[in-house]
């Protein structure tokens, strides 16, 4: 009877196919269990160009029953492909592809969908516009807000919905395809200044000057919860990759960690001596990084809420902070005109990005993590080597400060948004 039981167990969980995930490196297992198609991922965040792949895959096989002897060779091949991708040198020179004069009144924000095939712009003109990246054509103008459209987002990775948060205290959910408004979310008592979709695209979180954040059900179009706990405006919020936690950063100098399912406040991260400018989880949800007007960036244990390290070094406010996709490096941008790269494990500063002539308001890694993009008030955006801090390229042409910059998922397209009222697309 022993053997028959084992046979049933294997049949109950059958591997359908293996998919590669380049950023951050991993393999997605698609399998059938109890007649239902499921997926599970094996993260390979520590994969390096010199990793012994065979040994690594044998280790994985010990822990992962879905990977049987028969597919071992295939898994080795896939991991080698990921390794090759990591080993590719970054020598892509970006050149200006298009300049879009997007709105009559100033821009507030720009954002890509995952592939970078489309992007959105928010504006003081009370609209959000959807653009086709390749043609530079305006696809939709999302109209209906009665004040500045300030916060905008796609529900990536899907990209079929757009959320807009406005100074009119409402948030709207739109169809990317038709440009129609699905829902208007009402309930905040002051301007909405930040928003984010959860990774499953079932919830939207909004943060407001009324000191609260709210969670909204996208399907039903109604409020799920109000996150009460801050004593000043919430200006940053972010879900973790699993979607069970959300953090809110406030002018009250604290960051709050909330349980998404129960809307309970789990931790308050206390330590900064100035307003919070940005806050983010790393990929495996173990760390939180926060940037503040107190000139520092802090690293926290996301599970316990305890302070791990203070990353000091900037001489003025830290305006933006982010992890790379694998969650192993941190980049900070400051009003002192420099950016820095820290190792999340050792907490050491590994590179200083110096060259901008004015404050840097935005910083981001390319998906591969070997390149950093900064946007500055000096009217330029710059590309930097994440390991050495060398400036690879200066993106020039804007005639006023650049407040937004982003990569698409492949890392071969960049968008910059400026106070000169134009967006520039770089290939």
UniProtKB/TrEMBL annotation:
GO terms for cellular component: transferase complex. Keywords: Cell projection, Cilium, Cytoplasm, Cytoskeleton, Flagellum, Repeat, WD repeat. Required for axonemal dynein assembly and ciliary motility in ciliated organs, including Kupffer's vesicle, during embryogenesis. Facilitates the onset of robust cilia motility during development. It comes from the Eukaryota. WD repeats lie at residues 100-141, 142-184, 185-226, 227-268, 269-310, 311-352, 353-394, 395-427. Belongs to the WD repeat WDR69 family. Signal peptide: none annotated. The keyword Chloroplast does not apply. One of its GO terms (biological process) is axonemal dynein complex assembly. Pfam families: WD40 (PF00400). It comes from Irena cyanogastra. It is found in: Cytoplasm, Cytoskeleton, Flagellum axoneme; Cytoplasm, Cytoskeleton, Flagellum basal body. Gene3D superfamilies: YVTN repeat-like/Quinoprotein amine dehydrogenase. This is Dynein assembly factor with WD repeat domains 1.
């Amino acid at each position: 009877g022993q053997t028959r039981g084992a046979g049933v167990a294997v049949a109950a969980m059958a591997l359908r196919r293996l998919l590669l995930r380049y950023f951050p490196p991993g393999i997605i297992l698609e399998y059938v269990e109890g007649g239902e198609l499921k997926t599970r991922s094996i993260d390979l965040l520590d994969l390096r160009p010199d990793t012994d792949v065979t040994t690594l895959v044998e280790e994985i096989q010990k822990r992962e029953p879905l990977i049987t002897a028969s597919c071992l060779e295939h898994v080795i091949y896939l991991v080698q492909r990921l390794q090759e991708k990591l080993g590719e040198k970054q020598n892509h020179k970006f050149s200006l592809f298009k300049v879009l004069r997007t709105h009559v009144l100033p821009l507030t924000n720009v954002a890509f969908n995952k592939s970078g095939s489309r992007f959105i712009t928010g504006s003081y003109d009370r609209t959000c516009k959807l653009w086709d990246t390749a043609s530079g054509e305006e696809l939709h103008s999302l109209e209906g807000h009665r004040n500045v459209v300030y916060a905008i987002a796609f529900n990536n990775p899907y990209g079929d919905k757009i959320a807009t948060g406005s100074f009119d205290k409402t948030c709207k959910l739109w169809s990317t395809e038709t440009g129609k408004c699905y829902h208007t979310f009402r309930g905040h008592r002051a301007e909405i200044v930040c928003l984010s979709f959860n990774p499953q695209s079932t919830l939207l979180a909004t943060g407001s000057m009324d000191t609260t954040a709210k969670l909204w059900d996208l399907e039903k179009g109604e409020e799920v919860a109000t996150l009460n706990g801050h004593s000043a405006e919430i200006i940053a919020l972010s879900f973790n990759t699993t979607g069970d936690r959300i953090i809110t950063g406030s002018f009250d100098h604290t960051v709050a960690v909330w349980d998404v399912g129960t809307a309970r406040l789990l931790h308050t991260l206390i330590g900064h001596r100035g307003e919070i400018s940005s806050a983010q989880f790393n990929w495996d949800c173990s760390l939180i990084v926060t940037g503040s007007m107190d000139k520092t960036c802090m690293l926290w244990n996301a599970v316990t809420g305890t302070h791990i390290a203070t990353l000091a070094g900037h001489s003025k406010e830290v305006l933006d902070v982010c992890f790379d996709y694998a969650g192993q490096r941190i980049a900070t941008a400051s009003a002192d005109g420099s950016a820095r790269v820290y190792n999340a494990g050792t907490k050491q500063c590994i590179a200083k990005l110096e060259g901008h002539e004015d404050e840097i308001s935005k910083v981001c890694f390319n998906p591969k993590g070997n390149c950093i993009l900064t946007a500055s008030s000096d009217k330029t955006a710059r590309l930097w080597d994440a390991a050495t801090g060398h400036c690879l390229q200066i993106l020039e042409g804007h005639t006023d400060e650049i407040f937004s910059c982003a990569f698409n998922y492949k890392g071969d397209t960049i968008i910059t948004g400026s106070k000169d009222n134009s967006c520039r697309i770089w290939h």
